[in-house]
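tool=predict chain=A
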Amino acid sequence: MTLGTLEFLLIGVIAIVLVMVIGAIFWYVLQLHLYVYAWGLGMPSPSYRIKVEYNTLIPMSDGVKLVADIYRPKVEGQYPIVLMRTPYGKGNTEHSYPTIATIFSCQGYVVIIQDVRGKYGSEGVFIPFLNEEQDGKDTISWAAEQEWSTGKVALMGFSYLGTCAWLSSLNGPKALKAVVPMFCCQNAYTGWIDGGVPYLKDILMWLSRNHGRKGREIPHSEVDDIILQLPVLQFDKRIKDGIDTFKAWIYHLHEDEYWQHYSVNHRRDEMDVPALFFAGWFDRFVNNTMDDFYETVHNSPDLKTKESRLVIGPWGHMPTTEYPGINFGADSRFRNYFPSMLKWYDHWLKSEKAEFDHRKPIEYFMMGRNEWRTCETWPPKGVYEEKWYLANKGAANTFAGSGSLSREKHEELITDSYVYNPELPAPSIGNKMLYGNDTDGPREQSILYNREDVLFYHTKVLEEDIEVAGPVAIVLYLSSSAVDTDFAVKICDCYPNGKSYFLANGFQRMRFLDSVKATHGIESDKVYRLELMIGQTAHTFLKGHRIQVQVSSSDFPNHGRNLNTGGSNEGDSEEITATQMVYLGDVYDSHLILPRFPGNTPR
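tool=predict ok
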C-alpha cells in the first residue's frame, strides 16, 4: 500500500469521524433544545426525540385536500393526537406553532398543525368560518385512523383556531376526547359586533390581513387613514382585501341566522367533550368566555363536559404582551400554564389520574395583589354588590379635590355635560382590541385628561384595600340633543403617582337601548336610564389608590362612530355634534356597582 493510499484512507477516516462528531453534536443540541423548552416551561423532561412530516395532504369528505405538518415521536408506536387548525400558516413562528408542536410531541403526542381550507398550501377557497366544522371533523376522523394513532384526539386553538375547535366539537367524531379553546368565544356575532356596533378597526385589520390564500401585512397606518372616511360601507373603494366579507358582516349587525352558521352557542346540547378554557382580563372575548364556560358546563348533558375548567389571567388577546408601567409578576406569565395543558391532555387522552380540584374549576388572577386564586362559581362566593354614587362635577381637573365617587348618595341634583363631535372622537386608549397598536390592555390614561368630551369621576384616596371580582356595572341617567348617540364607560385604577390605568370598558348605542333589533332612535333631551355592564374583572384597588370612572361618547376605533343623525351610521356621510348630559343626585342616582369582597380578607 502506497503512502498516497494511506493518506487517502486516513483522510476518509477523519471525515467519517468528523461526520459522526457533528451528528452527535447536532443530536445533543437538539436534545438540549428540547430540555431547555421543558425546563423553561416547568414541564417534565422530554421523553422522545421527534420527527416532522411536512406538507402531508389530508383528504376532506368533498375531495379537497388540506395540507398539514405532523410532529411525532421518533420511536415507532401509537400516540394520542393534538390537532391545531389555522388560517395563519402552519409554520408560523410568530404564532409559535412549531414550538408548541415540539413541546407536546416530545412528551409523547402526535401534533398536527393544519392550514385551513383555502389558506397557504391547502386546496379550496377560504371563507371565514364557513367550512371549519366539517373540515375539522374530517381531519379528526383521518387522524384517528392512522397507524401511529391511539384513536384519541384533542383540539387546541387560540383565537380563530379556538373557533375551529368549537365548531368541530359539535356532535364530533368519537375520537374527540378534549378541547383547549383559548381567547375565543362560541358566538361569532359577539366576537365581531357589540350590540349592533361593529368592532370596526379589528374587522378591517383581520379581514385585510387574512383575506386570500396568504393575505398581506397591511400596516396600521393604512387602515387608520381609511377608517376616518365616510361612508363606512364604501370602504371597498379604498381597500379591497376581504371587503365582501366585511360588507356581509356590516349588513348583519343584528344576531340572525347568518351568524348562527358560524357559532355554536345555540348548539351547546351537542357538545360532549370537556374543555379547558383560557381567557384574559384584557382580551375582547373574556365576557363571552365566562358565559360560554357557565353555559357549557350547565347545559351539556354529558358528565365529562361538566368537568370543564376555566383559567383567567391578566392577559390581552396576545397573552405574551407586556404593558408599560404595569408588572403583574413572573407568576402571571401565560407560558406557566403549558404544564396544566399537558396534564389536561394526559388525563383525557392517556387516562392518567387528574390532579385538578374539581370542586373549584375556576382559576383566576387577582390583579393588584398579583396572585392566583380558585373558586367554585363566578363571581366567587361572598362577593356582594356595593354602590358608589357619582357626584360633583366630572372634570379631570378635580382629580386632587374631594372626589367624585362616594358611597353616600348625593341629595342635590347636579348635571354634567360635554359635546361629542364625531369628527374628533375620543380615542380608544386602554381597550381589549385584537389590533390595538399599543393602545390595548391596561394603558395609562393621562393623555385623555385634556379632552373636553370625557368626564372623570374618582374616589378620595382609599383608606383600605378594595377587592372586586365579578361583573362591574354602572347605572347612568343621561340625555342627548341627538336622536341617536353612544355612551362609553371605563373603570380605571389611579395610582398614588397620579397615573391611571385601564381595567374594563362598556359601550351602548342608544338606539339599541331596548333591543338590538330596534329601528327607532331616542327622543332628544329626554332623560334615559342606562344600566351598562362595564366588564368582568378581578382587581384589588390598593390603599392609597383611587377608583376612576370615565364617561364619554366614543371608543374609536375599537367601536364604529355614531354620526348622531339617527340615520345609518354605516351608510351615511352626514354627521352632527351632540350635547350630552349626565344627571347625578336626587332621583337620578347614577352609580357604579362593584362586585366586592367583604373586608380585605383574600379568598
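The chain has a mean pLDDT of 90. The chain has four domains: 1-41, 48-189+271-321+329-366, 191-251, 384-596.
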